[in-house]
Amino acid sequence: MLALLAPVPAVALPAGEGRDLVEAVCTACHATNMIEASSGYTREDWAFLTSTMIDLSGNPVVRDGVLDYLATHFPPAARRSATPAPGPLAVRFEQWQVPTLGQRSRDPVEGPDGSIWWVGQWADILGRLNPATGQMEEIRLPAGAKPHSVNIAPDGAAWYTGNRNATMGRYDPLTRQIVEFAMPDPAARDPHTAEFDAQGILWFSLQGSNMIGRLDPASGEVRLVASPRPGSRPYGVKVAADGTVWVACNGANCLLRVDPATMAVTEVTLPEAGTTVRRLDIDADGIIWWVNSGLGRLGRYDPASGEIREWPSPSGPRSHPYAIAVFDGAVWYNESGVRPDMLVRFDPATETFQSWPIPSGPVHAGILRHMRTTRDGQALLIHQSGTNHIARVTV
């Protein structure tokens, strides 16, 4: 088990034998509100779920005490139930559980050789998977980096965002060397999500710092610019075909357009108060698709006409759409606020939805925070950070 962020329990668990044990074991990595927010499981499923977070096989007394309490007080329930959207397509989930438990594996991306890279945010890990053999390697990053995302540069190097140590990091697979690039402004605390543009420039968001950054790998120069609206919390980042950088606002009803030459930031205000946007993607026609996380909707913005449209997500206003990607001629995203965590497909031509529960091994436990396509556009890369799984989805 990893004693990493160690938050104080956020909610009081029900009284009963084993409560103190559960609080002691589970809150070393996460708050008890994550137990309360679950859909509940059988004892067998709780056994599998906890095994993806911590190895208690060497202490059966503690293991049985934890499982007895969880199965008694958090059995299968209908709270936060998803609303599946039926449809004609079938999808295939291929899954791999990463080696180090409790790391919160996330943000898989494919490299030029077909390897799938990920980061283990809570354990300062950069990982690489060979999907053909299942072989995995974990690289230890500088302590305290708490990497939030990873991108693969044109030269094959893996770049990660040091979300807790205010750096951007580069790992060279050939030399196995790590080089960190510090933020030039002490107010720039938390590099978050990044994307390369066609010139090899790395653009990134800083959510809590309310900034957008630009890093030139050739020179190492880092430039920063503030978001126009205080508290807009820049989050997801995508680069359009014309080089324009688009950034989602996780703290306000807006999208941000960044001029790649001048770094001038223009806000596109979205219509409804309560709207927040975790992530966005761009289709082949330059249309911006975004998740309205705050109101449980899928949004579409046409930069040419300024038209904005939204569709309610199948599981409703509290479904909290999170990750998003344009794939297979459709828009895909997940509903992170319900259980199971649902993978949703929206067909723009027919304006219809279909959805599937995302598995975490034999259970459905969530949560998906970022998704991207493979380099050939034939598969979708997702994860379940709560259970340390990386997955590949094909239609």
Automatic annotation (TrEMBL):
User: InterPro entries attached here?
Assistant: Cyt_c-like_dom_sf, Vgb, WD40/YVTN_repeat-like_dom_sf
Query: Could you tell me which SUPFAM superfamilies the record lists for this protein?
Result: Calcium-dependent phosphotriesterase (SSF63829)
Pfam families per the UniProt record, alphabetical: Vgb_lyase
* Record-level Gene Ontology MF annotations: electron transfer activity; heme binding
Name used for this protein in its record: Cytochrome C
Q: Which organism is it from?
A: Alteraurantiacibacter buctensis
What lineage does the source organism belong to? Bacteria, Pseudomonadati, Pseudomonadota, Alphaproteobacteria, Sphingomonadales
